[in-house]
Amino acid sequence: MRHLKEMLRDTSLSAVSAGFVATLVGFTSTIALIFHAARSLGATPDQITSWVLALGLGMGLSTLGLSLWTRAPILITWSTPGAAVIAGAATGVSLSEAVGAFLVCGVLMWLCGVTGWFERIMNRIPLALASSLLAGILAKFALLSFAAATPQPLLIVTMLMVYLVGKRWWPRYAVLGVLLGGTAVAAAQGLLDTSQVKLQFAQPVFVMPTWSWHAVLSMGVPLFIVTMASQAVPGVSAIRVSGYQPPVSPLMSWSGITTVLLAPFGGYAFNLAAITAAIVLNPHAHADAGKRYTAAMWAGLFYIAMGLLGGAVAGLLAAFPAALIMGVAGMALLGTIANGLATSLAEPGKREAALITFLVTLSGVTLLGVGSAFWGLVAGVVTLFVEHYRIRPPSHEGPDER
């Protein structure tokens, strides 16, 4: 009760708006991929609903607990690249064997936290590379939002004008204005389809795990690798670039524990958010950085509500046109992209490495099943190594001091 009072005292309308937008973007952008992954494993409709319930509760409760503990906007989400791994590796793997693979992934994530090795790696990544990595990830989303102007020019142009006016006169509520303005235009154009929305609460369905080396090696280990490389690294970068320094190892440990607990119900992998985290980390979420954690907590509450509704989620999210969702997300991320680029290019000695990191990440290249976020960071680190290996800084000693 005390924590609830603190949250309500520290919150603001902009924090509620940011939390809702983060949840909306997070669910709508990849929920179809989650459904596809579950169906690929032969899940029944009730089991798919259980997946939504487990994922919603896992994300919501983890986000609430970690944000309240650290007093920082910590947003936990499902592994988006992991869902693609599951769908791609589903051939010959039963649902129960997949659950066993999910448990292996969760244990490996937990080990990353308790051993502290992941945090040690993150501590060695220069801020310039972390900033350019984050900017590259978010810029892809922003580009897609403006590309949506081709099929829906009136919708996107209206949202952009609302954003610009909002930035000028009510900056804290600019993103909320974009959401409301876009929804009004979409409704006027007949783009909102609520015919599929039906109230239906979810029920948990337990699947007993079985062990298969084939499932562990083809699904569990790749799920762990892409989740850590494509989400954990940019997720930590997003938090640190925004000025917060929470303990990284416990975040990894709790992500792993949550995965282990909820895997039998469909919670296949949880980790730090990057794209949606930038929405609650943005100053638009709350003018006071010390109270910005409330935006993440509101997102956690909306996650839980989404999970409990379960069967109604697909219809509810399908009611919003894709252009509206992409437009809101892209404009909500503009400030964070700008700050990331400014920080990444501030140091002349790391400017080229930062630029290469940004471009490789933005390219969307996928190698060995691992996404561009990881390869962008690798490219930046290699560039720094080649440029600065065994190069001593210039001496500032005068001729008489040598």
Task: Describe this entry's structure for a reader.
This protein has 402 residues and is mainly α. It has one domain (2-346). The protein is 70% helix and 1% strand. The chain contains 18 helices and two strands. It has helices at residues 2-10, 13-40, 45-70, 80-88, 95-115, 117-123, 127-147, 153-169, 174-188, 213-241, 248-262, 275-281, 293-309, 311-318, 322-332, 334-344, 351-363, 372-388; strands at residues 76-78, 270-272. A two-stranded antiparallel sheet has the order 1-2. The longest helix is centred in the middle third of the chain and has 29 residues, at 213-241. The chain is globular and about 55 Å long. The chain starts with a helix and ends in a 14-residue tail after the last helix. The mean pLDDT is 82.
* Helix coverage percent: 55-70%
The 3D shape can be described as globular
Rg from alpha-carbon coordinates: 21 Å
Number of domains: 1
Instruction: Note the run of SSEs as H and E.
Output: HHHEHHHHHHHHEHHHHHHH
Query: Which percent range describes the beta-strand content?
Result: under 5%
Unreliably modeled segments: none
Q: Based on helices, strands and strand pairing, what is the structural class? A: mainly alpha
Largest sheet: 2 strands, antiparallel
- Report the mean per-residue pLDDT as an integer: 82
Number of strands: 2
Helical segment count:
18
Distance between the termini: 67 Å
Strand order of the largest sheet: 1-2
